[in-house]
Amino acid sequence: MAVTLLNPAGLPEIDAYRQVSIATGSKLVFIAGQVAWDAGNDLAAQVEQCYLNVGRALAGAGATFADVAKMTVYVVDWTPDKMPLFLEGVARAAAKLGSTPVPPGTLIGVAALDVPEHLVEVEAVAVLD
Fold first, then answer.
1. In terms of C-beta density within 10 A (0-12 exposed, 13-18 middle, 19 or more buried), how is residue 72 classed?
2. CB 33 within 8 A of CB 89
3. How far is CA 20 from the centre of its chain?
4. Low-confidence ranges of the chain (pLDDT < 70)
5. What is the pTM of this model?
6. Contacts of 51 (CB under 8 A, 6+ apart)
7. CA-to-CA separations, 118 to 12, 32, 53, 66, 73, in angstroms, rounded
């Protein structure tokens, strides 16, 4: 593996992701922000589809979520009460992918995305040997 994930001592241990990734590979893979075109106005469904799309993009590059060093998630009108729906979408995607994506990540609340129907967008950076 070109990416090692860890939670250094003294930093919070968060189930949804690890605080640090150490990349030792030589090939970087940048996945453009993925959106859900056919998931309706359901945040959990859109999150699920976005993660599945990232998984497909990674596979196209010969990578998996195990190779992801960093993810960034943009959510329209984010408020903390949306976290259960967000985590539900991630869990549903993880069940279909057969693995739980836990690289370091940043969730950013935004006013809008490319079209009004999109509630979430997910991008990733992976590292391969």
1. middle
2. no
3. 15
4. none
5. 0.92
6. 34, 89, 90, 93, 94, 97, 101, 122
7. 31, 15, 14, 27, 12
What is the SS3 assignment for 41? coil
Instruction: Provide the residue type at 33 as one letter.
Output: G
The three-state secondary structure class of 89 is: helix
Residue type, 54: V
Q: How many CB atoms lie within 10 A of CB 94?
A: 17
Q: pLDDT digits over 47-69, tens only?
A: 999 999 999 999 999 999 999 99
Instruction: Label residue 40 left, alpha or beta by phi (over 0 means left) and psi (-120 to 50 means alpha).
Output: left
SS (H, E, C) 63-114: CCHHHEEEEEEEEECCCHHHHHHHHHHHHHHHHHHCCCCCCCEEEEEECCCC
Q: Are β-strands 105-110 and 68-76 bridged in parallel, bridged antiparallel, or unpaired? A: parallel
Identify the sign of the CA torsion 74, 76, 81, 82. negative
Q: How many residues does the chain have?
A: 129
> Can you list the alpha helix ranges (DSSP code H) found in the chain?
43-60, 83-97
